[in-house]
Amino acid sequence: MYEKINVTIKNYLQLWGLFFKIGAMTFGGGLAMLPILERELSEKRDWATKDQLLDYYAIGQSTPGIIAVNVATFIGFNRGGILGGIFATLGIVTPSIIIITFLASFISSYSDISWVKKILAGINVAVAAILTKAAWDFGKKTIKNILGLLIFIASFVAVYFLKIDTVIIIGVSAIIGVIFHLISSKKALKNKAGEEDT
After folding, report:
1. Total-model pTM
2. HSE-CB for 84 with a 13 A CA cutoff
């Protein structure tokens, strides 16, 4: 019994430690975290496939909260239930809490200094580059057919040019995805029935 408790505690601490490391080493937000999550969770540990991670990202984007925290919670829950989700979530946010607490006192005192402004401007450019690369990689992995490409183009036009709320775009895209899945399933069933008849 004690061995089982020790193994369980070890698993929770492993979840916390891994997501603490990911949270501490990732800059640029949730999307920029995808390559690190793929390496740590898919390639090194086989905790989730790359397709599952993309699904977690899609769900994380369409639910309230920060993508990285949502993904950590999903993985933690899959690995260790509710407590696993809590430990993974705490792991991913702890580095940010520490760093932001430190920076908040620093920036409020020094944000008007010219060299600090230049540092922050440089960081903004670097983060923009990281996010662009992450978005490009994410797009290559998720746009798999004509429908995906059309949804991507329509969503971009709706957000960038028409200024439509992203909640509406995500909702409409989800409905289109469900309809497409139902149509594809019906076709597959008809084809299967036709093969069985012959």
Report:
1. 0.70
2. 15
